[in-house]
Amino acid sequence: MGDVKTPSITEMRKRKFAHQIEVANEGGAVADSFFEKYSYNQSYEDVFQDAFNGNYLVDLIEAVWGAQPPYRLLDCGSANGLTLEQFDKLGVEAWGIENNAHIHSKTPEKWRERNLLGDVCKMPFEDEAFDFLYVTCLPHLSEEIIGQAIKELFRVCRVGVLLQGVTTDMTEEVIEDYELFKGLRTFWTCSEWSDAMVCAGFKLAVSDPVLLDEVWRIEQETDEDDWNWYPNKETMRYHFFSKPQIG
Questions:
Q1: The pairing of beta strand 130-135 with beta strand 157-163
Q2: What is the DSSP letter of 80?
Q3: What angle do CA 22, 26, 28 make, to 5 degrees?
Q4: Where are the strands (E) in the chain, listed by range?
Q5: pLDDT at position 33 over 90
Q6: In whole angstroms, what is the distance from residue 69 CA to residue 95 CA?
Q7: What percent of the chain lies above the pLDDT cut of 70?
Q8: pTM of the model
Q9: Structural domains of the chain, ranges and CATH numbers in brackets
Q10: What is the rounded distance in angstroms from the CA atom of residue 74 to the CA atom of residue 16?
């Protein structure tokens, strides 16, 4: 008998959590139901305060790039713009772009000018319009357009990207508890997302072991669950990317 091929971690996770996987709306946007039953059958609005931590993201930006507010940040996958208010309280000029019209329509009036309904593959912003990008939307896009989306991230970014989307090598506990595979269209590991970012021109922002220790410390101190989101410290380096500076 020939050797039996060992399934990849992505294949194993997709089999185990097949009950979570849903079909996206035609046109590529996440299904409206994704936001209505975002976590524990509660809506995005109901769980937002528990799910989003602006201080954590600002601390990571300072650790990796040495930057403190004020700076401009684009939230790619901004839903109804609630993140913008949280960033604003921390001194960050935050903008958002979201492709689901249903959740975008719930944007508070105060943030409608900054929270745009649009396509991350073709963003209405000038080159290097934002210092940093906070990106959660990529796994919700189909695999054939990921390359174009990352090219757009590269174009509008000036300094760096926090890539915070769902990966298939997150811990099983967190995938199961938060039903992270709901609404996904592209199932890649941390390193596969990293390869795609590097191919588009970005470079890994975290290579120094001391800096990686600091990033892991922030992750551990912020995470209030009984388990880790990421399986180990090493995988954290694949979530921070710098845009090479010319000259």
A1: parallel
A2: T
A3: 80
A4: 72-76, 93-98, 115-117, 130-135, 157-163, 203-204, 240-242
A5: no
A6: 14
A7: 94
A8: 0.94
A9: 9-242 (3.40.50.150)
A10: 34
